[in-house]
Amino acid sequence: MNKRRKYIAWIFLAPSLILYLYFFVYPTIEAIRISFYKWSGFTVNMEFIGFKNFSKLISDDSFLAALKNTLLLLVIGGIGIFLLAFIFALLLGSGIKGKKLYRAVIFFPYIIAPVVHSIYWGLLVYNPRTGILNQLFNLLNIEILAKISFTDISHIFGSVLFVVIWVNVGFYLILLMAGIERIPPYLYEAARIEGATELQMFFKITLPLLREVLVIAIIFWGINAIKMFDLLYAFGGILPPRSLWTNAIYLYIVGFGKRDPIFQLGYASAIGVVTLLLVVIIAFIIRKLIRREIYEY
Amino acid sequence: MNIDYDFLKSKARERQYMRVNKFSFRKLIIHAILIIWCTSIGMLLYFMITSSFKTNKTVFKQLWALPEKLSIVNFAKAWSNLNFGRYTFNSVFVVIISVILIIVISAPASYALTRMKMRFAQPMTFFYLAGMGIPIQLLFIPLFKIMASLNLVNTLPGLIIVYTALSIPFTVFLLTGFFISIPSELEDAAFIDGCNEFQAFFKVMVPMATPGIVTAAIFNFIGLWNEYMLALVFITGNENKTLSLGLYSLYSSLQYTSDWVSIFAGSVLVIIPTAIIFIILSEKLISGITMGAIK
Questions:
Q1: Distance to chain A for B20, nearest Cα, Å
Q2: Can you give the pLDDT at residue B198?
Q3: Nearest by CB to B141, which of A25, A31, A91?
Q4: Which homologous superfamily does the CATH classification assign to the domain defined by B76-293?
């Protein structure tokens, strides 16, 4: 019976495994291989050049700028998202009315298409001529902010970063709230009786007991931040300015760049491989940082 | 240590009572903060919807105003002249078939990985989940080559295959979370009653895992409906564009056309299905994320 079961398990697994292997795992390996070649895609000939694509990356200013943006998005975006998600989780957990409604509304942007966010924020909010933000600051008489052009090359990345945080907070809020709600309330009561302050309770009870959820949430953010494409790419209109490029966008531009076809497929793959390494390193760091034992309760 | 729960409870009640009176000002502030944030979200809908009923001449001059009349001329134009009708059909077709396929292949896999005591279950699960960490852009070039060799570039079935294959890791991640939490007694009872594995799966496990399957389906629907990056790579012709890609193309050709209101009408078309799902199913979705992601 058990033997039969093990054999049947593979039947259950087969359809997904075949698709996954052929359309996901195989291309991943193939991409790593291509990254060691010089290849334009038009010819069958691929010239093996070893690590040359990678050494070229180190001296490529566009790549370094993209890498910097990727890391900024990951770190600053992550800090913003988790800080706000924690604040909202505590505000919503303070026993106010309408908790579920607030939570649902804060989550709402997450289900809207990134290209719609790009249009809304790019055209109707940030754009100094057509958007509402500068009007709003003028109205409020905040001159310093009213003067800023938020779609200017020097500000556009910060502007997008805010949108990324604004869109994603709701999702991480849900994860954190679920984690917090699982913490038994008697721990807080006991702490209160001992005279702990709200802040102490947050750092001594909530945060340690949330570790497991936090690891999942941060890793989830990490891999999604590094992959992020849709919102940033559409934000710049026809071709995003270089100040918006991340690894994901730069890879697309180098490999497929429609307006200015370059088709450096080996080089583009090398960008992808570096990005993959980044994911591995980050997952490793997060695990190391938040390792320690998980509290049983 | 013995904890006197009754004492704690009465103490807690007392404190809560005190709080209600003492800190109502604090609550006011909390509501104010939350309302400001939520207003910024409401504004997206307000500006998108009102702008989609205006004209190119007036839209930016009277951004805050309500439209003078509710004429659907922008929608009609987007739908027929700008091909959004076609795009909508493509999106509905591609996304629905993809979601069905994703579930049909991922649910049995998740069941096998969690419940069938197969050998290598753990490394296999890790192997599936590792796909979540792969930056999708890395796959563009080899996957394009594979699709080209199968003559599936710029076809809707090709896009369906790409969507299905690339959604497997996340879906398996969500579903294994659900399958693992189903008590094994039910399964054992099914086997004692003479069910084989397939019957046990379809008659016992699938109904038990329905909340998870619904969550995974909604999540994939929303994700794929909104997605335009893969469509941008694998759809090269105008007639096969999905709605999100169509909207992106219209937006990126903006500087030649200046047809703003069509863009807003298109945006509203993109928003409608996910917004409806959200209104009907948001609580299910939220509890599903919670159960699936946090085991």
A1: 9
A2: 87
A3: A31
A4: MetI-like (1.10.3720.10)
Compute the average pLDDT of residues B140-148. Answer: 94
For the stretch A77-87, pLDDT in tens is: 999 999 999 99
Could you tell me which chain B residue has the CA closest to the CA of A169? B37
Are the C-beta atoms of A173 and A88 separated by less than 8 Å? yes
Instruction: Return the residue matching tokens 């948001």.
Output: B282
DSSP A47: E
Count of C-beta atoms within a 10 Å radius of residue A292? 8
Rounded to two decimals, the pTM is 0.91
pLDDT digits over A238-263, tens only? 778 889 999 999 999 888 875 555 67
Q: ipTM value, please give it.
A: 0.91
CB contact under 8 A, A9 and B116: yes
Domains of chain A: 60-117+168-289 (1.10.3720.10)
Q: Is A261 exposed, middle or buried (0-12, 13-18, 19+ CB in 10 A)?
A: exposed
Using one digit for the tens of pLDDT, what is the confidence trace for A212-248?
Answer: 889 889 999 999 999 999 999 998 777 788 899 999 9
What's the mean pLDDT when you consider all of chain B?
A: 89
Residue among B33, B137, B198 minimizing CB distance to A229? B137
CA-based nearest distance B118→chain A, Å: 5
Using a CB-CB cut-off of 8 Å, the residues of chain A touching B161 are: 19, 23
CB neighbour list of residue B23: distance below 8 Å, 6 or more residues apart:
none
* Token pair of B146 as six digits: 């594979």
CA closest to B59 among chain A residues? A130
Cα B172 to Cα B129: distance, rounded to the nearest angstrom: 7
H helices within A148-296, ranges in order? 156-181, 185-193, 198-201, 207-209, 211-227, 230-235, 247-255, 265-289
Residue A195 contacts B, CB cutoff 8 Å: no
Residues of A in contact with B142 (CB under 8 A): 26-28, 30-31, 34
Listed as ranges, residues in chain A with pLDDT below 70 are 1-2, 42, 258-262, 291-297
Domain boundaries, chain B: 5-51, 76-293
CA dihedral defined by B48, B288, B227, A227, rounded to 10 degrees?
A: 110
